[in-house]
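Newbie here. two chains, one complex. Structure please?
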Amino acid sequence: MAVESNVIDAAGPYDRAKALSAFKLGDVTFYWITRLSAISVLLILGGIIVSLIIGAVPAMKEYGFAFLWTQRWAPSADPPVLGALGPMYGTLVTSFIAMLIAIPVGLGIAIFLTELCPQWLRRPIGMAIELLAGIPSIIYGMWGFFVLGPFLANTFQPFMIKIFDGVPVLGAIFAGPPSYLSLFNAALILAIMVLPFITSISVDVFKTVPPVLKEAAYGVGCTTWEVVRSVVIPYTRVGVIGGVMLALGRALGETMAVTFIIGNSFRISSSIFAPGTTISAAIASEFAESDGLHQSGLILLGLLLFVLTFFVLAAARLMLMRLEKKAGN
Amino acid sequence: MNFIKTIVAAGLVAATTTTAFAADITGAGSTFIFPVLSKWADAYKKETGNGVNYQSIGSGAGIKQIQAKTVTFGATDAPLKVDQLQKDGFAQWPMIMGGIVPVVNIEGVKAGELVLDGPTLADIFVGKITKWDDAAIKKLNPSAKLPSDAISVVHRADGSGTTFNFTNYLSKASADWKSKVGEGTAVEWPVGVGAKGNEGVAGNIAQTKNSIGYVEYAYAKQNKLTYTKMVNKAGKTVDPTNESFQAAASNADWTSAPGYYLILTDQPGDKSWPIVATTFVLMHKEAADKAASQEALKFFKFAFDKGAKSAEELDYIPMPSNVVKLIEKTWSADIKS
């Protein structure tokens, strides 16, 4: 207290207008700096879209909308025949399977960590999750290639093929022959890679649930499961879905690990044990040696991934909005 | 489009450039030539003090770089056709060769035991032959014990000169392949899985039972993969050795190939290995920086004169001396100093 009064005394006569205008200048500068930072995102994004479109124009002119449902990818044919169906299918299927595995597992870990886990186990598990996020994707690819692939091909896939043999639909999905490199292997690696996104964001938002809400629920005799289902999840829904979307974005765009283990085949097969490719894997593999229409087709694939990701995220937002409306907030 | 190309090219160069001095020779392109080129560059730097800065970014990108005049020379695994050379004002010549060999992983079959020929190889890669005990394979290998298992085909996923030469050979060996798939650095593979790079294919073959793929000879040798013998154009069965690769090169008719446009697959001669790849160097006939261009020629002359041994150590095949003489004539006639 004493110090403060000394400072004011030392400052002498107090010019209010001057001080206020100094504040104002600071405020205005701050406002513009933050605003420009935000706008720069839009500019960069716009620049990327525009350059992608310019690069993709020759392929758009040549193939039109048929690019979307053509399965053939023959860059060496004369003229090249290019279609995006194979990579699009691979991108969506691997991401879908990855999310199918990663969402329940990720949420399960998060719930265990925040609600059930003994204190001494929290740190090791938490750190293991963070570590998963820190592993470079090429390491995931190599591990998938040398360890996971052989295990799946020799043990897991023959088992699944045998179980579902002859069952309609499922039989076709789990059809043989087993392979080291397949959509399923890639999806499994993706699931492991996106797990930390879902888990750590869920853990963070679960921690924001006011203890008094949970205590009240426990107080009226709810079980842990009921507290999680009826209090924690509804309270944190937006945050959890945000984490899931971040993970999905990563799964759709992941390149290096997928290229290693997906088999890089443009053919579409009903079996998830067959090799396939994704948009980003196809671009990464072929871009360096491509030219002309082939390169333009690859850029168009890139644009497509951009649009695909945009629509998936937009659909997620829409879903979220409807959920919120239904919940009445 | 050009805008994007420039950005991409600039990005690639920026990503791979280490330190560039003004006096250094710059080049870009083929990944195939990279190991031997860096060895030559090392020796050249020791002898003359001049460095060679080469970025192995792929043949296609190398052609783009020399077209954009951002490098002194480009290197490509697929030669440019004569009209293309004239359009761009390029001089082109072959610099180094290497063999491409089919590799297999079949239980009980050792390196050099299995014999294949072009049409059979094409039928396997087109998906017509699906089992190892197929009649066509048995006919070539009457004494071998081949399993009745499905063949897993492994090919390159990335665009590559190795794929270009391999598919070029299959196109020459099989009309079916030519009409259905054709040749190119990246093609529409009818069957199989794609792996990244020679090392990816080698790794895949080593891991997958009953598989077949194709790699540069050096990779097959270093990874101790089971390579096959091949029946060549003359109908003789040959092993992949430096001698059989060299035979393909010296039996090729370079003198009557304008712009050295010659692909060394399916060449005549009893001893010729049928799939030999060549990396070609591209330079502007009238370079903007003539001093750099002359310096590059000095480096290539050094490589031809003194680089044969280091090339052989890396399992490359040096150009035969009669071809080198021809190339040196081309330099003095075509490249303006």
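Moderator note: Chain A has 13 helices and two strands. The CA atoms of residues 111 and 239 of chain A lie 14 Å apart. Thread marked as resolved.
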